[in-house]
Records
---
Amino acid sequence: MRISDQDVRHLEALAALRLAPADREPMRVHLERILEYMEQLNAVDVTGVPPTSHVLDAGNVLRDDQVVASLPVADVLRNAPDASGSFYRVPRFVGEAEAEA
């Protein structure tokens, strides 16, 4: 398949690229080689080969959910630098932009 300079410029625009004039000819040659390879792949007989979405038989590697008891609140809050009752206290950051405006 023949790729023209106009085709390269069109693809350049579609891809939002700016090729240097000296780079257009090598790009044209690369694109022609890619299309030639695709023609070779299209010539391969795949009759009877089922379509695949993955080359390996991959399965879900996550474990099933299990209900377990939660940590005691006192143990969790032991790591908190600042706690109030059974909650973490954190610096206020939501609404700061509205308050400053």
Note: Residues 21-42 form the longest helix (22 residues).
---
Amino acid sequence: MQKTGCKMTRGEFLKFSLGAGAAMYGGLLRSALGVSLLSYGGGALAQEEKRERKAEPKGEGMHTKAIPSSGEQLPVIGCGTSRVFDVAPGSREYGQLPTVLKALFDAGGTVIDSSPMYGRAEAAVGDLLAAMPERRKAFLATKVWTQGKEDGIAQMRQSMKLLKAERIDLMQIHNLVDWRTHLATLRAWKEEGRIRYIGITHYTSGAYDQLEAIMRAEKLDFVQLNYAIDDRNAERRLLPLASERGIAVLVNRPFGGGGLLRSLSGKPLPSIAAEIGATSWAQV
């Protein structure tokens, strides 16, 4: 490292350290170490989409990380759709969702993660994005969550229909349900250009041994797992293994399912908050 003779204030050092730490782990809030290009393969349409996406200005103030298997850059904060997007069209809650997605895009984010397990979430995402000019920015991630090859194929086709997407950026095997069967299908679909990346997920640390075994044995683009200040089991073996194997990490429950923030409700921010420009516990 070349020395410049400059001195850092404590606040500048903290900002730098936090940024470096975020870059090192590269987890997306709720879902993703993922990103923005929707093109796949070498076809004329894919190449045209790729050129258009490259020409779009990047959002400011959002770190990005490379997907190891491709080098594609993804913003490090994404939007999960469990529960919040599983609401009825026309309801007050549904009416708030366009503001949520616009906030994501305005901040430079692109990743939206869903699943058939999340009820009406996929349909809500598809309908809302269809009405938004930012639709082409979205990096769509969803999952297959059923038993059997044919049922898995039918479920993924339904997800594409609900999301109004001809191609899914990331298809994941939800909670490792029938993962051997689905992994073979996902690989075939990736070759055909129906999906761009493949991954596996689980939400409990009790499944980490199985996640680890699959990560060691199979070639994957992504793994989605829990990781938060009060749930750091993943950093013992899975995060180092992901780095070693070149697997992107999608972090779900970064705030402990909301429990971390609820436990801090009403408590004053620490003095460090002002030094790093944070105005909420979530930012700290």
Note: The chain has ten helices and nine strands.
